[in-house]
Amino acid sequence: MGAATHTAFKGIVLGGALRFRGMPAWDDVFNEAQVEAIHAYLIDLAWRSYEAQQNEQSQ
């Protein structure tokens, strides 16, 4: 996920900013705190994947 996507994450998920690409708004399912938690989880998952990949390459 690039910097622009991180910045626009709430607008994408809650506001449907990418509706034209098939990503609907989820404002009827998630609240802002939940979207922030999802975003934090995705960031953590990306870091763990990166670290695992680095560990594999160093062995």
Low-pLDDT stretches are: none
CATH topology: Cytochrome Bc1 Complex, Chain D, domain 2
E-strand count: 0
Structural class: mainly alpha
* Distinct helical segment count: 2
* Elements, N to C (H/E): HH
The biggest sheet amounts to: none
What does this structure look like?
The chain has one domain (3-58): Cytochrome Bc1 Complex, Chain D, domain 2 (Orthogonal Bundle). It is elongated. Helices cover 64% and strands 0% of the residues. The two termini are 27 Å apart. The longest helix has 27 residues, at 32-58. Helix 1 runs antiparallel to helix 2. The chain is built from two helices and no strands. The chain has 59 residues and is mainly α.
Task: Outline the secondary-structure elements.
Layout (H helix, E strand, L loop, with lengths): L2 H11 L18 H27 L1
Helix pairs in contact: 1-2
Features:
single chain; 59 residues; mainly alpha; Cytochrome Bc1 Complex, Chain D, domain 2
Summarize the structure.
By secondary structure, this protein is an all-alpha fold. Helices cover 64% and strands 0% of the residues. Helix 1 runs antiparallel to helix 2.
